[in-house]
Write a structure and sequence with these properties.
By secondary structure, the chain is of the alpha/beta class. 45% of the residues lie in helices and 15% in strands. It has five helices and six strands, in the order βαββαβαββαα. The protein has a six-stranded mixed β-sheet, with helices on both faces. α3 packs antiparallel against α4.
Length: 150
Amino acid sequence: MLHIYIDGDGCPVKDETYRVAERYQLSVTVVANKPMTVPGKVKMIVVRSGHLDAADDWIAEHVEANDIVITADIPLADRCLKKGAHVLGTTGEAFTHDNVGDYLATRELMQTLRQTGEARGGPPPMDKKDRSRFLGKLDQIVQAVKRKTG
């Protein structure tokens, strides 16, 4: 059965994901390093570990082919794609086998630029267009997976 996993720490589109999941009657699991309030039908997994990637590790271990993962974490996206999952970034950009390498390379470059002081700051804040794009793309992915898995 199609399942949605949310990389919960800092995810700005949890509520949007819950709405889409409810419309299609899909199971949702939020995985995070600290407890948070989730709707009654949503499963909350709190991973308490000494390292920052514990939630990512849990998702990568449990995700299956055709599941959907919501994350802004590019290395996690890469790991989930390798298991056959669909991965959607929080601003509505789908990670694919064709583009994840470019995202990883850009991430590395930006880390280097930040370390050398040549770049500062992070991504711009979410706006209504980002949320709308996210909702549309998530709906599109759910419909495509449902058609594929029948």
